[in-house]
Amino acid sequence: MKTIIVGITCLVLGLAVGLIAPNLIGNKKPSEETVEQEKTANSEDSSYSSKNLARLRDKKGSQFDKEYLNLLIANSQYSIDIANLAEGRTEREEVKKWSKFLIETEPNSINALKTLYGQWGYRTEDINSNPDKH
Questions:
Q1: Closest by alpha carbon to 102, among 3, 20, 2?
Q2: Domain range spanning residue 107?
Q3: Total number of domains constituting the chain
Q4: For residues 115 and 127, which has the higher predicted lDDT (pLDDT)?
Q5: Which pLDDT score, from 0 to 100, does residue 2 have?
Q6: Which residues are CB-contacts of 44 (< 8 A; sequence separation ≥ 6)?
Q7: Which of 74, 88, 97, 119 can pair with 131 through a Cys bridge, CB separation 3.0 to 4.6 Å?
Q8: Model pTM greater than 0.70?
């Protein structure tokens, strides 16, 4: 029963982020220049996500579940790390609001995912929250 509640909590948090995010950052369409910059950045740095997704695709069952949770935890931590960099570096209120939101909410996601990790029988000391180690 606890697992179901934690799972539902994770889904609700994800939905909340999806619903709140457009209001925090505005519904502005990115410029063509921004889109091109993102394409360049994604092609140059696609090795991180490509490797992780490939490794995840190669797993099934318990191995998939464990790696799935590890990656979600790592990505949530990475979001916090990026958000912390915004302080003192950005002038945009949208970035400040979004960063504050991530810093406040992502720890809840991490804790919920760590709870699932333990409930599913994995040793919590095996959690690797460093996205570069996946």
A1: 20
A2: 63-134
A3: 1
A4: 115
A5: 61
A6: none
A7: 74
A8: no
